[in-house]
Amino acid sequence: MQELIECLTYDELEEFIKFSDYAVVDFWAPWCAPCHILHRILQTVAPAYTKISFGRINTQNYPEAAEKYGIYGLPTLLLFKNGQIVDRIVGVVSKNYLVESLNRLMQ
Amino acid sequence: MKAAAVSINGLSYSSFADCSPKFLFNLFSSTYRGVVENRDFSEPFNVWKIILKNASFEQLLSRGIHLSNIPLSNPTYGRPSTDMFKINLKEELELLLDTINDYSDKYVVLFSVNTYERDLKNKKNACEELSLIDDYLKAVFETVDSYVFFSPYGFNGTSYEPYGIYLSSLPRPSEEETIKLDQILDIVLSLKT
Q: Measured between CB atoms, which of A29, A32, A36 is closest to B14?
């Protein structure tokens, strides 16, 4: 499966959000089992949304990212439109729920 | 007190998302869980040498662990042992249940399911196989008092993944850490206490 989800550093995160019309950032950590499930769901959904930039950031390596964006549970997806947070999804969600959220983001 | 540790080599949480195994998802939501991390993957043989810390069947038996079907060799290491290239998944899972019934009163049975990984190499999607594993792990769960279901690495059909699963009646050693291969034997030992 082609990897459409960019692995981000803290330094890259700001520009990734700033220069994407639509962005989804997955805040995760290796020890977090639900994070691995959500990542796979995101991988399967991402190809259908070519206008959305998908990224993920390891909060174990970059705890400052979690602090800056108020991430208190993992996994958390933040959905951005023109650099602004428009939705926040905490925990594992179904593929359908994710698709609905991405569709709303694109409206 | 019956205890068992079952490894399903190659099983990853990605497969949970792809196949939605009913029992494993329920267990995932209700038991201790974690992620096994294996960044230096080489071969299953080497992975198992690390897990077992080079201890022999007899050495581990004296510590209360009964090894079965470990892919350190072919035929597999431990008792019972199988030919990894000839046994099919259902036969292997039947053997898992038989071994637990035969030995888990006295020992912690440490059994490796190896054919799932082999089957994944031959097909893109192994949800049917995972469904069968799901049924048998449910039977194991209903048989024993304490358990750990884990995988020392994931496999997606073409490449290895550095993360495996961990579902157990025991919490992982450190809350915000992955489980390393050299921690698994201690976890298995602690199932009996």
A: A36
Answer whether A41 sits within 8 Å of B17, measured CB to CB. yes
Give the span between the Cα atoms of A73 and B94, in whole angstroms.
Answer: 40
- Nearest Cα neighbor of A60 from B174, B124, B113, B122 is B174
pTM of the model: 0.95
The token pair at B165 is 């699963």
| Distances from the Cα of B108 to the Cα of B67, B130, B165, angstroms | 9, 24, 19
> What's the ipTM?
0.94
Q: Could you tell me which chain B residue has the CA closest to the CA of A34?
A: B13
pLDDT, tens only, A65-101: 999 999 999 999 999 999 999 999 999 999 999 999 9
B107 φ/ψ angles, rounded to the nearest 5 degrees? -130, 165
User: Which domain, by its residues, includes A70?
Assistant: 5-106
CB contact under 8 A, B14 and A44: no
C-alpha distance across the termini of chain B, in Å? 9
* Assigned CATH for B3-190: 3.40.720.10
CATH of the domain at A70: 3.40.30.10
- The closest of A2, A48, A7 to A28, measured between CA atoms, is A7
